[in-house]
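Structure in, sequence out. Go:
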């Protein structure tokens, strides 16, 4: 099974078709085969909120005392923004972009919350590559706990199977900045590229990557590589001696106050979590993750879960790509984002005290229109809420 096609392949087509409203009670009859990129819009809606019924996963246990999200709605019906030559309102955006949930937090309060496609506040939804940014935070937690000394340690210190390979000189920093210098072709429309490998199990990925040659010195060339983000997950499990779902629960999910069980998709049944994909959670808990990031990893009781300054370092420009940090995307309109295919998003703007989170079922995994529309919408929200 071509699992990266299944989970990460990026399409270039524009997304225009409108996803259907589906009663969650009818989801079972709409679940597609384990190949999400072949799913119809109907199958995406049902499948994205029932991912754990299709793929093996591990629970992330929630808190018994949820972090409060006071509700103070603001009328945003007057918000207008231009994208791709079109004037849009939030209503236009919500409908045309197949939004399943959009939540805006300003100064710690929910000012806008809306659900569609049959979703509710209790709906769990797959995040795709948003999980990369969560894995990055867990690297920080492992440093705070002393399992990892620092991100300039060698990858082979934790993954000895890679000794003697091109990863011999690669550091953890190089991996989380997508700049290992090791060859990898993530050309999504070329079936001969690396991204089309058939086996994405943990052991196979290590073996496959260990056979790749070096094409640049570590840290000098940005090369988006989903396989290496899975490698970060494997490295983390080796460092902490635990699985990622349990560690996430113990370090962030429970102590910060997430209110619902999350599911983290596994590379194989009984195996490890995808370090680069597929945490499944509710919209409000994704918003809490944004607040946790904004707090620089400080828990409600004042305990520090991440090293001091970790989020500033995570969202500083990398030497090889000024728009990328430690598995976070830096935004020209301020702040930073965790982004996943088909429209998944956590946008954090600490200066504006703003968090915008989104569940979506775009027809295409990634398209130029969405890349232009998302920042335009967030910029409009910044302006509309600047005096709040």
């Amino acid at each position: 099974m071509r699992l990266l096609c299944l989970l990460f392949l990026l399409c270039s087509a524009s997304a225009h078709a409108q996803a259907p409203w589906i009663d969650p009670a009818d989801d079972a009859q709409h679940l597609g085969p384990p190949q999400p990129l072949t799913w119809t819009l109907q199958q995406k809606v049902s499948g994205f909120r029932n991912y754990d019924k299709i793929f093996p996963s591990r629970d992330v246990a929630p808190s018994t005392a949820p972090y409060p999200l006071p509700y103070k709605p603001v009328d945003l019906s007057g918000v207008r923004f231009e994208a791709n030559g079109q004037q849009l309102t939030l209503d236009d955006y919500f409908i045309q972009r197949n939004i399943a949930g959009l939540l805006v937090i300003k100064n710690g309060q929910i000012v806008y919350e809306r659900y569609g496609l049959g979703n509710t506040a209790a709906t769990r939804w797959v995040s795709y590559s948003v999980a990369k940014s969560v894995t990055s935070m867990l690297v920080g937690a492992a440093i705070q706990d002393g399992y990892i000394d620092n991100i300039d340690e060698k990858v082979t210190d934790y993954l000895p199977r890679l000794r003697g390979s091109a990863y011999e000189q690669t550091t953890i920093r190089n991996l989380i900045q997508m700049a290992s210098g090791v060859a990898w072709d993530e050309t999504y429309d070329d079936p001969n590229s690396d991204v089309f490998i058939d086996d994405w199990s943990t052991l196979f990925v290590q073996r496959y990557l260990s056979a790749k040659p070096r094409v640049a010195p570590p840290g000098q060339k940005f090369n988006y590589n989903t396989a290496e983000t899975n490698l970060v997950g494997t490295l983390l499990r080796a460092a902490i001696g635990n699985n990622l779902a349990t560690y996430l629960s113990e370090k962030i999910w429970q102590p910060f106050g997430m209110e619902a069980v999350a599911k983290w998709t596994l590379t194989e049944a009984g195996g490890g979590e995808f370090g680069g994909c597929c945490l499944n959670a509710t919209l409000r808990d994704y918003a809490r993750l944004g607040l946790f990031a904004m707090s620089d990893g400080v828990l409600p009781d004042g305990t520090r879960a991440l090293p001091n300054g970790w989020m500033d370092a995570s969202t500083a420009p990398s030497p090889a790509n000024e728009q990328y940090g430690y598995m976070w995307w830096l935004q020209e309109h301020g702040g930073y984002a965790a982004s996943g295919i088909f429209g998944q998003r956590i946008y954090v703007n600490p200066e504006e005290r703003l968090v915008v989170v989104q569940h979506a079922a775009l027809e295409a995994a990634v398209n130029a229109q969405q890349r232009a529309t998302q920042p335009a919408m967030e910029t409009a929200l910044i302006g509309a809420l600047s005096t709040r």
